[in-house]
Predict the structure.
Amino acid sequence: MEGKGILGAYTILEQKSVLSNYYLGLKNVFPSFFKKYESIFFQTLGFGALMNAFPVVFSITLREYKGFRVEDVTKVFNEISYFDFEQWARVGTGTAAENDAADDLISELRDAYSEDGSKTSIRV
């Protein structure tokens, strides 16, 4: 929907591309979660949590890489490639569970990237 939210300034086509790149970036870094028959990414809790975390991922990616290409999103998620999405299956259901799961992901992202916009981890 144009005019609302963090993607409000973008066209519907651009919004579609951004969301596609978001999931493709996730797939690049966490392929095992896409191979599962009932992937948490596509269940209500996982989808809700990922959408709740999206504004943070979007902002970090734009700040760090000046774009939101698949490779940009992949680089952001690579910084937290150790993240265990399996834990989301144990948080329950409903809005509160989605928010808790999103908060866990956001916390890991913020730990990987400082508040002033610079990465806190060392590039090797």
User: Anything to note?
Assistant: The two ends are 40 Å apart (CA to CA). The first helix runs from residue 12 to 29. The CA atoms of residues 41 and 47 lie 5 Å apart.
